[in-house]
Write a structure and sequence with these properties.
The chain is mainly alpha-helical. The protein contains four helices and no strands. The chain is about 60% helix and about 0% strand.
Length: about 90
Amino acid sequence: MSKRLQVLLDEPEIREIQRAARAKRMTVAEWVRGALRDARRREPLGDVAEKIAAIRRAARHSFPSGDIEQMLAEIEKGYGSGGPEEP
């Protein structure tokens, strides 16, 4: 079911929106729906405090990792060989 939304804009704003819609060969209504859809996608979902708490919980863990210089050297060696490392 569709619902109507009324938004009041001043003249300079509506002219700018009309120009933007015309440039994309869209109606103002299509352009506004697209703009609102894009804005909704950019809005973060979920509680920010919960997200931060999850990051803090994850940061408490310690996992083994290789020496960065050794890993980079192995990567570079792999790029240069053109194939799997020979024994």
